[in-house]
């Protein structure tokens, strides 16, 4: 018999305990041993968790218990779980964690501490989708060319409702919170940080890149308006918050931002809380992974898969490689060197010569317009100008935006969104 202890019996922790009980037969058949939850740890013992397991409010009752074989960390936060996971590993216990923030900051130290002790984290990225296993095991023969995906269920749920139903931002955010998709602090979802944690984990397995969230380009969904949605529809795009890791000549691009993507692409059709990740390998070509990216049972499914793998003795090295991955070949590409297509929205005077001034500014930075739309604004003297550019360097579009803002004919903020073709 294998005994586990669960640190954090919230939505996911309760699902783990309940599924281990409800599906005990099939799980035992697959793992080859019976798996039982010896203890769960919570902050507040008086709250009903809807589980049939013993509870404690002291995490060391799990971490230091010699009878517990596997510690399941589902607490959230970074420093406290780091301390406890470290202690559990030092005590020789295998660890399963769903904590993407912990891994976004400490994955390399934890790999070092773990050594040959299993440390698994399938549930940290894209909820129930077995993307870590796919990248670490299934695609082990490949050089990874790109990873692109919807890695946050809350924002995909919000964007779907805003785009398909014209729903208001605040209302859909509240719904996502009520459904249990959002983080305790939902700004992590809408600002793109949650997706960045997941992207960094995948980028470590694919490219061995040791970056932290503050090292990469992260933008959230808060500036998207119905004007952008309508433009995207007219020009054959969908808007999705994407995590992108792409190998280019001089390094690897890592970025999270709202993105216009062709409405005909598979990822564009992924709606609601669902996540989808496309991985392109040099041998296999494009592979796609789709499923629930948030929610108690879906995430618990991935947690239990890790537990079963540990019990079977099937563990891979934590980040999927035993020695340095391709030497120092993969460097994080500086943000300003990213090359892509851009969409710009600005409010301008409705007067002769205004377009010429704007295109003249863009010409100074060698930026070429691909498509353009002018829309009346509620203020009769102004119009909204929306356009897309041919591929250009991030450095140039950022500099051009600074200059455009200085023009007398341009009013207020200029909104920019990147386009992936
Ligand atoms: N808040 C996250 C999401 C939960 O919405 O995807 C899963 O990591």
Q: Would you kindly provide a written description of the structure presented here, covering whatever features stand out?
A:
By secondary structure, the chain is of the alpha/beta class. The protein has three domains: 2-128, Rossmann fold; 134-291, 2-Layer Sandwich (Dihydrodipicolinate Reductase, domain 2), CATH 3.30.360.10; 336-419, ACT domain (Alpha-Beta Plaits). Helices cover 36% and strands 27% of the residues. It contains 14 helices and 17 strands. It has helices at residues 11-22, 24-31, 60-63, 79-90, 100-114, 131-138, 153-165, 169-178, 187-190, 193-207, 226-234, 296-312, 354-364, 394-406; strands at 2-7, 35-41, 55-56, 70-73, 94-97, 119-120, 144-150, 217-218, 237-248, 251-262, 274-281, 285-292, 339-349, 369-376, 382-389, 392-393, 410-419. Strands 7, 8, 9, 10, 11, 12, 13, 14, 15, 16 and 17 form an eleven-stranded mixed β-sheet that branches. A six-stranded parallel β-sheet has the order 3-2-1-4-5-6, sandwiched between helices. Strand 4, helix 4 and strand 5 form a beta-alpha-beta unit. It is elongated, with a radius of gyration of 23 Å. The mean pLDDT is 95. The structure holds L-homoserine. L-homoserine binds next to helix 7.
Pick out its properties:
421 residues; alpha/beta; Rossmann fold; Dihydrodipicolinate Reductase, domain 2; Alpha-Beta Plaits; 3 domains; 11-stranded mixed sheet; 36% helix; 27% strand; binds L-homoserine
